[in-house]
Amino acid sequence: MKKIILIILIFVGLNTALVFSQVGVNTEDPQATLDITSATTGTSPEGLLVPRLTGNEIEAMTTSASIGSVHNGLLVFATQASNAVNPVIVSTGFWYYDALDSTWKILEREERRSSVVIDPTGAGDYRSLQAAYDEEAKKKYIPTVNNAPVEFICQNGSAGDLYVDGSIPYIKVKGSTTSPATIGDIEVYNCNITFEGNITANNITCINSYVLFPITVLTAFKAKDVMLNKCLFDINVITYPIEVSRLLLDQSSGTAGTGAVVITFTPDTDVDYGLYMNYSSLKVGTNINLNFNGTNTYNDYIYLDNASLINMQGYINANAPLTNAVVYANQGSKGTFGSIKGTAIPKHVFYASNGGKIDHFRYNIVMTTKNSPFYATEGGDIYLGAGGTTTTASTLTKDPSSTDVVNALYAVGGNVRVITDASATYTVTNYDYALMAEDGGRVATLGKVTLGGSTVICPPSMTPGTINMSNGSVIYNLP
């Protein structure tokens, strides 16, 4: 009886004259200040139950109970994360008070978890994606055979922003199968990141990283600007489309799978370009679809700059308003393209300058333009029919509202060449002139350009096969 009373007095903190150096529970030989020994062999619950409070209750207690230096080491268990504007208790688990830093800290787990759930309602492991990343990054990393990523499953509303500093080398951001993941801005450094499930995000920036959009398991992906800087990437989604406002590749290299990959560009404001590449490369399959949709205006759909390289022999669906060109290649960049069709009426289909090169390799082009559909300046090169028998008959038509004098194949210090040896032709309808060269430019057709409507072969000042002595330009129109 005395032993029971003594234990009670010690736990309630009452003053007593009974002083013992060690106390034992279920043992007469305690080996520490407090030694608790199990009373059974697992037939009833055993252990120490510390106070259990919600994250909000712990934070309220910190203020109302004047938690201070005398409470250093105070231990509680958080049953759920706090939903305060600037929470301290960001996850469930054991938390202790660190008086030196005047804050609560979670007891470090031995091992980083392979999968956590982010749920802003408190029904998951964390309330925000950033809190989940920060807390899991602090834990011990034990490599696996395949270096499996930490999976962050987002559900039931906004998971917030995410800043990744590379502390976790492999991560997977995944939308729940029951509800899409809604994420703010994502900024990633020095990390392998995979997107899965149903994801809607704001702007995404990845630097010095590997980015994967995997096959089948990414069921929907929508974001605003996606910028990859010094990254490797793979886009292998063939079941559902990827929708972005803009895709910016800077010093990056990647592939888009051989299946029916669909990337849809739908900006929420007028933009300079949809796909921009700078010192970058992108190789895609012949079944890829690039859809340019919406009511906002692009200057160029695809802008290739500074020695960039794209091999895109699939389909460009050109339906959004467009000011300048479907493809603009500049500063030694090269692009290879396939089918181009749509309701957009740009100035140009292909515009190559400053050493840029554009090949039409596969399928056909059916477009209406305000100006020259094929325009090469300052050393730019445009090669039409480069794929031989893979190229089919193309039709280009001058916009009837255009009052300018328009040349269909127009080389101003550049080169526009039809190089196919197949039967495919390029029919140019209602342009003022089919062929025109200036400032040392060259146009060569191999007889594959067909005149439609009111189009005339070339201005009276130009004679096919004869060099224009005033500026060195020449037109070759022989088969």
Quick recap:
With 479 residues, the chain is mainly β. Helices cover 6% and strands 43% of the residues.
Plain-language structure description:
The protein is mainly β and 479 residues long. A hairpin with a 4-residue loop joins β5 and β6. The longest helix is centred in the first third of the chain and has 11 residues, at 2-12. It is rod-shaped and about 115 Å long. Mean pLDDT is 87; it is low at 1-19.
Low-confidence stretches: 1-19
Main sheet attributes: strand count, strand direction, barrel closure: 10 strands, parallel, barrel
Ends: how far apart? 114 Å
Radius of gyration: 33 Å
- Shape label: rod-shaped
**Helix proportion range:** under 10%
Which structural category do the helix and sheet elements fall into? mainly beta
Number of strands: 41
Report the average pLDDT across residues. 87
Count of helical stretches: 3
Tell me the fraction of residues in β-strands, as a range: 35-45%
**How do the strands line up in the largest sheet?**
14-16-18-20-23-26-24-21-19-17
